[in-house]
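TODO from last week: model Riboflavin synthase.
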Amino acid sequence: MFTGIVEELGEITAVENLGDASRFRLRGPVVTDGAKHGDSIAVNGVCLTVVDHEGDEFTADVMAETLERSSLGALAVGSRVNLERPMAVGARLGGHIVQGHVDGTGEVLERKPSEHWEIVKISLPADLSRYVVEKGSITVDGISLTVVDAGPDYFTVSLIPTTLDLTTLGLKQPGDPVNLEVDVVAKYVERLLGAGQGADR
């Protein structure tokens, strides 16, 4: 379980093609501190398992389905990535409940800078639009953000300087893909309401 509060901006240092998977080596001094085999680390919002750890780098295997369903397949050596360790029991929940299970990908459509913040417009897959509401939470590349405007096929977020400086959203340009995870609470509510309606029939 994660919170969507990125701990550091890491970097892909190696990519090995394993046929039906890829092995990534990533540099992240903060998230590797005390890391061990089997630990979880969110990479651009995707929960990955640490295979090996040496110095300030760790390796993780990414299955073909994850590569196809997320933006991780577009990563290469030198790509910057958002990194976060799982939330510790009893720690403050700074963002919102993030599972690290990507629901789909969007695309940066537009950036509108202003003096103290920037509005970013991102495309939204049709099957996810019902879970996204104004002032609700959404995870973009592992970052917990508040939705400013929600349309049928897009949403916007407002980014403060800290987010722009310390995450990949400061680097993304129109056309770049991003991982999306909608608020899991919305999915549970939908499932429960659907079960209730079915019971009434």
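Done. DSSP finds three helices and twelve strands in the chain.
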